[in-house]
Each structure stands twice: as C-alpha cells, then as structure tokens.
Design goal:
The complex is a heterodimer.
Chain A: H1 2-19, H2 29-39, H3 58-87, H4 95-128, H5 136-145, H6 153-168, H7 181-192, H8 194-197, H9 226-231, H10 250-255, H11 267-279, H12 285-304, H13 317-322, H14 326-333, H15 344-364, H16 372-405
Chain B: H1 2-12, H2 28-33, H3 38-61, H4 71-93, H5 95-101, H6 103-106, H7 112-120, H8 127-157, E1 159-160, E2 163-164, H9 168-172, H10 184-201
Antiparallel strand pairs in B: 1-2
Helix pairs in contact in B: 1-8, 3-4, 3-5, 3-8, 4-5, 4-7, 8-10
The chains are: A mainly alpha, B mainly alpha.
C-alpha cells in the first residue's frame, strides 16, 4: 500500500513543474492542484498571521454527505428495476437483475452530471486563477437522485450547466450561492420541460437496457406517483395504488417501493443518511427536526380540515412526510449549510417554515403535486432575512440588559 | 464640425456605450414583458423610437415656455398624446400585434427611458439634436429587445418571427422547447447575459 502511495507522490512531484507558471501545461494548473489536494493533504501552510485549521475541511464534509447519499442511491437503483419489472407484469424479482437494470439507468446520468458540472467548475477556476472548489461533489450525485428516471440526459446536462453557471459561479463559486444548486437544476427542469417532469411517463423506466427487462407493459398500468395520483384525484375515498393497481400499504411508502424520483422514495434510506449526517455532526439537527415538525404540524392541520376540493388533505400527517420528496428535502436539501440560516434560532424558524410551506404548496395548490423543492428554494431566499432579524433581536435584548444595569 | 460630432454622438452613443437598457438599466419592465416573440418586440421597439423622437422634438420646441414647476406634467401630456396616436395606428394596421402587446403600448407613457431623455436632453437642447437623441435611445432600446426576443423565441418556441426554424427532425430525436424561456425570469437572465458580454468587451463600464 505504502509503495503505491509513494509511487503516486513521486509521480505527482515529477509532473508538477509542467503545471507551474512557465510550464508546458500551465493552463491546467487548477486541475492538477485539485487532484493533488484531493489525493494528498497539502503540506503548504499560510504565510501570514496565525491560522487554526480544522481537520474537517470542505473535502471531508462533502465526502461524508456523498456517503450518506449512498443508501438512497443503491435503493434508487433497486427501485428503478423493481418498478420496471412490476410494470412488465413479472412475478419474479431477481435482486442482481434489478440492480443491474437500475445501474444502467442511473450510471450515465451520474457521469454526465459530474462531467458537465465539474467541467464548468474546472474552466471557471482556471479562468479566475483560483483553486478548484469541491462543492459540486455533492450536487453531482444529488441531481440525478432528485430527477425522474426518464429525464433525458441532454436535459439533465442543460439544467446542470444552467444551474452551476447562474446559481453558483456568477455569485462567486462554492459557498457564495444563494440557492441550492441541485434544487435549482430540478426547478429548471420542472419549469422548462413540464411535460417530461411529471405525469405518467416520467417516473418509471419502461425500455429494456442491454437485454435486461424485456417485456410488454401490462394492461391497466399507470405510472403516476402517489402524490401525482393525489393531485388528479376526484371523489371522496382516496386509495393510493402502485403502477399495476394494487393498493399501497404504509410499509411500502416507508420502505420506498413506489414510483418517484430516483433517490427520494425510500424514507428508510433517507433516515440512514440522516443518522450518518447527524452522528458526524455535518448537518444541523435543528433544521432537520424543525422541518419534520413543521411538515407534520401542517399535515395534521390539513388533515383536520379534510375537503374534496383539495384531495391532499385526505392524507394523514405521517403519509405527508413519508411521501414524495419531503423527507429527502428535509435531510439533504434544507440542511445545506451554504443556503440555510446560520444562527441557531434562525435554523428553527427556517426549518419550520420549509416544512409548513412544503405541505401548504402540496396540499392547497393542485397545480404542483410536490412542494418540497419550491419551499426550500423560497426559504433559501429568506434565510439571510431570518438571520438578520435574529441578530438584530439579540443586539436589542443585550442593549436593554446593559441599559437596565447602568 | 463640433456640433456635427455632438449630433452624431447623440445618435450613436445610446446604441452601445450609453445604452438605456444595458448600461442605464432603464425600461427593464417592458423588456421582460414583450420579448417572448420577435414580432411584438420589433413593433414595440419601433413604437418607442417614434414616441421618443417626436416627444423629444416637441418638448425641445417648447422648452423655453414650460414653467419649471409643472414641466413633468407637460412632458407626460405630450408623451401620452403621442402614445395614444401610436396605439390607434397599431390597432388600425397591426391588430394582431397590438392584441399581443396589449397594455404595454399604453405603458410606454411610464417608460423610464422617455422621462429620462426628456428631462436630461430635450429640456436643454435644440430640436434637431433632440430628435437624433430620441432616435438613438429608441434604437438602443429596440436592439436589446430584439436580441432578447431572438433567443427567447428561438429556444422557447423553436420559431423566429412565427416561422418554424428548428426542424421536426430534432423534435423526433428528443429535442424539446424550453418552456422556461417563455416565462419572464429568463428574459431577465438573457438581459443579464447581454450585460455580461457587453461589459466584458467594454471594460471601462465595469464598476
């Protein structure tokens, strides 16, 4: 092992001069720098002043978030296969066949998202003579996870490019963005190509890949997600079904064997990710807790005033927070440290409002079956205001205390 | 010779270096509203050129007789009168386009570019330079409108001036029109991109 590491170090040292000013490959300096610091801890120290560095740098933060997303990704692959086999009316579900099918569906999306996003980051870093930031490491895996499986790859590339350029790079790169990059990608797709992002044909892969999963779609097949079914529901007795018409149990919704965007269906896997994030202290438990609290409370209120005008009011509060992208948004989107509120009190307010607004949009606007994305984006824009109010309130309180003592 | 140069710069400066939309950031409202298609954008541009040029001339002619404390009202009356004429002409000869533009022709009255030029230029200059200034600023506005509308119509509808330019072949192979381009937010982003490109070329405009 050590010999490999040493050989790698030696190789990097040997090619390094070519990338430094005056070298032949100077144009790729930031790329080299990015890979070098990715592979080895940099030995350089700051030249001025006294600096304390936490060993938890942004690379390590990003890697842990990616690890926390792995359960969702793996389950997403399995579920793509499961939904496909269900749609072609198969009785036998071979685990590895399902996984292989799901892998084929998701693999190129991951590759293209990373290639486009990192490509833009590399170019911009080189252009501005900056180091490459690792912010896209997480966005790149989030984007395929929050999109329907049938999203065409070129659309994914366009949306990713738009989002990285106009949401991140124009504001100054990683750490300066107002909105969550992955969610803006999703919002771009949602508003630009609405017919491909919702309805019956977006959420279940129906074509066979590499000879896997050949078969005809069964009669009575409908590809609508549970929330899609709710949004178009007319009547007074709501029963959610899977794609071949069997009613869904609560357990199915929790485990996640339902149609939906790739990574968001399984509340169980999202909870595993949440445990990883909380145990390592990467994400804020305040935000997570308050998003769930807000969503649950609003779900209870909506369910208490059940009407047939808004079919989503027939869902119980627990169903509200397990269905759709709510849990995923609560754990991975709302907790994004760059776009969330920074103050502790602010985090409670921010999270609570994300939860409440997500359920309000989902329930009382029949045009949007899912509101978690819009709720997080809306609160992203409010987060600085919340922080401002908290800080000002703190100053006022302390001033009053100071004056009363004097 | 000196006046010649001044006249020329009154006409040409607003096209790029002193563009009302992308440098002074005026008239953004209508820039977002009427640029979803190329045709209404062109008609809107021509309307603004006409109104601005003639309003400038009229105000310039009576500039010495307008009492200072009611000058804004006088300017508004002149502009409103011209806008009514333009609106009626559009309804008479370009009914479909005037339907599409709907209230935005009437709203030329409140266009910041008009009030700005009347106050800043026509109130202090002779009719001929004022006329050229009006044409120049109107054209500067129209150019930006047309560029924005070009991209929005091409990417949003796949057409230009109502004619299909993206071939059916592309649609058959999975291409789809970008619905976001039709919505006003994209007009703002396209305008932002034009400003970006413009300022990278004219580095002295960078703040």
């Amino acid at each position: 092992m050590t010999t490999i590491v040493k050989a790698l170090r030696k190789y990097l040292d040997r090619i390094k001069p070519q990338f430094q000013p005056g070298g032949r490959l100077h144009a790729f300096e930031s790329v080299f720098d990015g890979f070098e610091t990715f592979l080895f801890t940099p030995t350089t120290t700051s030249r001025s002043g006294c600096n304390i560095h936490d060993s938890l740098d942004s690379k390590r933060v990003m890697i842990i978030v990616v690890l926390a997303l792995i359960p969702c990704l793996l389950f997403g692959m399995y579920n793509i296969g499961y939904q496909h086999w269900l749609a072609i009316g198969s009785e036998s579900f071979h685990f590895w066949e399902l996984m292989a099918y799901g892998f084929c569906q998701i693999f190129w999306k991951l590759v293209v998202t990373y290639a486009v996003g990192l490509g833009i980051e590399f170019i911009v870093a080189q252009w501005r003579h900056e180091e490459i930031q690792e912010g896209f490491l997480v966005s790149g895996i989030l984007i395929p996870l929050i999109c329907p499986v049938e999203t065409p790859i070129w659309m994914l590339a366009v949306a990713t490019a738009f989002s990285v350029i106009f949401v991140k790079e124009v504001f100054g790169g990683t750490g300066y963005n107002i909105f969550n990059v992955a969610l803006v990608t999703r919002a771009f797709l949602f508003f630009a190509y609405p017919s491909r992002m919702s309805g019956d044909e977006a959420f279940i892969a129906l074509k066979s890949t590499l000879g896997l999963g050949e078969g005809q779609v069964v009669d009575g097949f409908t590809g609508a997600t549970p929330l899609g079914q709710v949004a178009t529901f007319v009547g007074d007795k709501l029963t959610l079904t899977n794609s071949v018409g069997d009613p869904l149990t609560y357990w199915d919704m929790f485990i996640g064997l339902i149609p939906g965007s790739v990574g968001e269906t399984s509340t169980l896997c999202i909870l595993i990710g949440a445990v990883i994030l909380l145990a390592t202290g990467i994400a804020s438990w305040r935000i997570m807790l308050s998003v769930f609290a807000g969503g649950f409370l609003m779900g209870l209120i909506a369910h208490a005033f059940e009407t047939t005008t808004y079919p989503a009011t027939m869902l119980t509060a627990l169903e509200q927070i397990t269905l759709g992208g709510f849990a995923f948004a609560a754990v991975f989107m709302a907790t994004d440290p760059v776009t969330a509120a920074r103050t502790n009190t602010g985090k409670y307010v921010y999270g609570f409002l994300v939860g409440v607004i997500a359920i309000i949009i989902r329930t009382y606007n029949n045009g949007y079956p899912e509101g978690a994305m819009l709720a997080v984006l809306l609160m992203n824009s409010m987060a600085p205001l919340i922080d401002y109010c908290v800080v000002e309130g703190n100053i006022r309180r302390r001033l009053r205390r100071l004056n009363s003592k004097a | 010779m000196a006046t010649e140069n001044k006249n020329l710069s009154a006409l040409l400066n607003p096209l790029s270096k002193d563009n009302p939309v992308i440098v002074q950031i005026l008239g953004i409202c209508s820039c977002l509203a009427v640029t979803a298609k190329l045709e209404p954008a062109c008609v809107m541009g021509i309307s603004v050129i006409a109104v601005l040029a003639f309003a400038n001339v009229i105000i310039s002619l009576i500039r010495n007789t307008i009492p200072t404390n009611i000058r804004i009202i006088v300017q508004l009356v002149v502009v409103a009168g011209l806008v009514v004429i333009v609106n009626q002409l559009l309804i008479a000869y370009q009914y479909d386009v005037s339907k599409q533009l709907s209230v935005f022709v009437s709203l030329i009255v409140t266009n910041c570019i008009l009030m700005g030029r009347l106050e800043a230029f026509a109130m202090g200059n002779k009719p001929w330079p004022s006329f050229l200034d009006g044409i120049g600023n109107g054209a500067g506005y129209a150019i930006i409108l047309i560029i924005v509308a070009f991209f929005r119509e091409l990417l949003g509808c796949g057409t230009l001036w109502g004619v299909q330019v993206i071939p059916q072949y592309c649609y058959d192979h999975g291409y789809a029109n970008n619905g976001l381009m039709i919505l006003p937010p994209m007009a703002l982003i396209v305008t932002g991109c034009i400003i970006w490109a413009h300022r990278s070329v004219n580095k002295d405009l960078q703040e």
